[in-house]
UniProtKB/TrEMBL annotation:
EC number: 7.1.1.9
Protein family according to the UniProt entry: Belongs to the cytochrome c oxidase subunit 2 family.
Residue stretches making up the Cytochrome c domain: 239-331
PANTHER family recorded: CYTOCHROME C OXIDASE SUBUNIT 2, CYTOCHROME C OXIDASE, SUBUNIT II
Any Pfam family the entry gives: COX2
Protein's membrane topology: Multi-pass membrane protein
Record-annotated Cytochrome oxidase subunit II copper A binding domain positions: 116-228
Reaction it catalyzes: 4 Fe(II)-[cytochrome c] + O2 + 8 H(+)(in) = 4 Fe(III)-[cytochrome c] + 2 H2O + 4 H(+)(out)
Keywords: Copper, Electron transport, Heme, Iron, Membrane, Metal-binding, Respiratory chain, Translocase, Transmembrane, Transmembrane helix, Transport
Cellular compartments annotated: Cell membrane; Membrane
Protein name: Cytochrome c oxidase subunit 2
Annotated organism of origin: Paludifilum halophilum
CDD domains membership: CuRO_CcO_Caa3_II
Enzyme class: translocase
Length: 331
């Protein structure tokens, strides 16, 4: 019953946020809808139990209260088979009503979709960022995963370090990312939009900042995105950006990869930066603009404590500007 109130409170708080793209109460796909149905069912059952128990309690306290002149201990009653059976059977029935749809929804979420009707995306969680790879499309990105609407997306998840959990409340979930294990979560968006996602397993200092975005496009627009990612514009457009590219090759490429730029090394310990300029946020938390990127490069620890990126404060102001120029131009 306590859990019921906590859940109800959580639902009320969620509803109060009013953020359309991050609410279990505003599902944007079949998984989210089936989960919202479960939330209503369980909240309904729990509310019913609270009301019935409270009503019985109030009735008993009132009906058997001490009246003036009654000083002896009342007659003591022990055992009632009828009542024992009743309050054992009713909770069993309620738990069955909860369990059957919950278990069936859990299995549906984990069901392998038909390969022809789905798109596979490999997800790897790291402290504190998300790597996304489209094995059939030859595309890699980080922190923002683009998907077509109306398609089942077969997210295959694992972790590169500790346990994380993937949750995009509007779409459904969530699912743990365990090192050495592949977990599956099949999600589908039925309308275009930006859906906020969060890490929901405590994973270190910046767990609360380990955000991602699921960006759902109509299919034609998604195809355009894939084409642009396969053929990204990774060459510098200005002299400053050329200087930046040189600095990237000296400072960044050991950890980050930029496809189409002609770098010999493709670092894998940090997020893939292909078409970085098109991302909406830096490191999943900060609006992607030049000012923020400059501050991030100078000291990433201020924004996301505990992340593995070192500060580039040894670079001059001009060198930082060159880096920013080149990275922002990656489209
Ligand atoms: Cu990753 Cu919390």
């Amino acid at each position: 019953i306590g859990a019921g109130w906590v859940l109800l409170l959580a639902v009320i708080i969620q509803a109060g946020c009013g953020h359309p793209s991050q609410s279990v109460l505003d599902p944007a796909g079949p998984a989210g809808r089936s989960q919202l149905g479960l939330i209503y069912l369980s909240t309904g059952i729990m509310t019913l139990v609270v009301i019935v128990v409270a009503a019985i309690y109030i009735y008993v306290v009132y009906r058997f209260r001490e009246r003036p002149g009654e000083e002896e201990i009342p007659e003591q009653v022990e055992g009632s088979r009828k009542l024992e059976v009743l309050w054992t059977v009713i909770p069993i029935i309620l738990l069955v009503i909860l369990a059957v749809p919950t278990i069936s929804a859990t299995f549906t979420l984990n069901k392998k979709p038909e390969p022809e009707q789905s798109m596979r995306v490999n997800v790897v969680g790291f402290q504190y960022w998300w790597g996304f790879e489209y094995p059939d499309l030859g595309v890699q990105t980080a922190n923002e995963v683009h998907i077509p609407t109306g398609t089942q997306v077969d997210f295959q998840m694992t972790s590169g370090d500790v346990i994380h959990a993937f949750w995009a409340p509007s779409l459904g979930g969530k699912q743990d990312l365990n090192p050495g294990i592949q977990n599956r979560l099949v999600l589908e968006a039925d309308r275009p939009g930006v859906y906020e996602g969060r890490c929901t397993e405590l994973c270190g200092a910046s767990h609360a900042l380990m955000n991602f975005r699921v960006i759902a496009h109509p299919p034609e627009e998604f195809e355009e995105w894939v084409a642009s990612m396969r053929n990204p514009s990774s060459q510098p457009q200005t002299p400053l950006a050329s200087e930046g590219k040189k600095l990237v090759s000296q400072n960044c490429i050991g950890c980050h990869a930029i496809d189409g730029a002609g770098f010999e090394i493709k670092g894998r310990t940090g997020p893939n930066l292909t078409a970085f300029g098109k991302r909406t946020r830096i490191a999943g938390v900060w609006e992607n603009n030049k000012e923020n990127l400059e501050a991030w490069l100078k000291d990433p620890q201020v924004v996301k404590p505990g992340n593995r990126m070192p500060a580039f404060d040894h670079l001059s102001k001009k060198e930082i500007s060159a880096l920013v120029e080149y990275l922002s131009d990656l489209k």
